[in-house]
Amino acid sequence: MSESCRPLSILLVEDNPNDVELCLRALKGSGIEANSQVVQTAHEFCAAITARDFDIVLTDHGLPGFSVLETLELLQQLEKDIPVIILTGGLPDEQVAEYLDKGAADFVDKGNMNRLPTAIRRTLELMTARKRAADLERQLAGIEESCARLAELSADPHLIESDGAIVYANAPAARLLGAPSEHQLRGKPAAQIWHADSRNSLGQAFAELLTSRAPVSCDARLLRLDGKAVDVKIAATAIIYHGRPSVHITIRDLSGRRRVDAAIKSLSALAESNPYPVFECSRDGKLAYANAPAAELACALGKDNASAILPPESALIVQTCLSTGQKRCDVETTCGGRTL
């Protein structure tokens, strides 16, 4: 609330008119304009608090028949989020701690009422900050819900790890880990889904991620529920999930890529061990690889490189084969006076 916009609405729980006047004089002297209502009993307090909104409650500690604890309890029962400042003639530290623990915002000694405006300003500033934090929490909750919906629609596996446990998994993550459903993964210790080869390094990386907030991207190895290892690529970011610092992990299965790499390596080995010249071209028909016999043949024909002994129309032949799916066999070309 801004003091320049409207007067403060104050509920005073006080039975001494002199103390009421003392409070209002202290506020006016500091430039705080206030609309105040004075009550003395629990009944009057409840009627006032339900009839209108108040910015703050000032309550006398020594009021007969209506204690500070009753004031705090009534506010909780009525679900009124209004800060309370206790006016006292002096309290033991233990009692002050008890009141603060029960929800009191501050206390002011009646012998030092000049402190009251400062206490009110400080309390309202903290109240505003707390409400902003609560609004931010609600916004984050909305973001979390949106992220969860996006993860549900994603074809990639998604996990969220918090406090060492899996707190969210989507259906692709369940399939990758061999779980009957994503619900079976939730609550599972995160260490159990990471292979021993990756467990320590990922644990350290995630701990640093929560501190630095810098995204992590690396290769790792998962451990399925059936005990089989899966090579994956992960991208991890720090998020707040259900109010807790967490790690959102997007996973890409590398098993298919590893199989393709192995097949390419196997084909390359066949070409290297082939006693006959072997040429491999890119999609645009350019020479991408020639084995040793191909290089030796080019040298024997007086050419500097293997591409010089290919037919001039090689690029067109490759593109035609790729576009039609048909083979071209027995293509002849002349080089160095020899027909190939």
Summarize the structure.
The protein has 340 residues and is an alpha/beta fold. It has helices at 17-29, 42-51, 68-77, 93-101, 116-153, 171-177, 196-212, 255-273, 292-300, 314-324, and strands at residues 8-13, 34-39, 56-60, 84-88, 106-109, 158-162, 165-169, 216-223, 229-241, 244-253, 279-281, 287-290, 334-335, 338-339.
Task: Write structural notes for this entry.
The protein has helices spanning 17-29, 42-51, 68-77, 93-101, 116-153, 171-177, 196-212, 255-273, 292-300, 314-324, and strands at 8-13, 34-39, 56-60, 84-88, 106-109, 158-162, 165-169, 216-223, 229-241, 244-253, 279-281, 287-290, 334-335, 338-339. The chain has 340 residues and is an alpha/beta fold. Helix 2 packs parallel to helix 3 (68-77). The mean pLDDT is 85.
Keywords:
alpha/beta; 14 strands; rod-shaped
Shape: rod-shaped
First and last CA, distance: 91 Å
Q: Considering DSSP H and I runs of 4 or more, what fraction of the residues is helical? A: 40-55%
Question: If you average the pLDDT, what whole number results?
Answer: 85
Topology:
Layout: E1 8-13, H1 17-29, E2 34-39, H2 42-51, E3 56-60, H3 68-77, E4 84-88, H4 93-101, E5 106-109, H5 116-153, E6 158-162, E7 165-169, H6 171-177, H7 196-212, E8 216-223, E9 229-241, E10 244-253, H8 255-273, E11 279-281, E12 287-290, H9 292-300, H10 314-324, E13 334-335, E14 338-339
Parallel strand pairs: 1-2, 1-3, 3-4, 4-5
Antiparallel strand pairs: 6-7, 6-10, 8-9, 9-10, 11-12, 13-14
Helix pairs in contact: 2-3
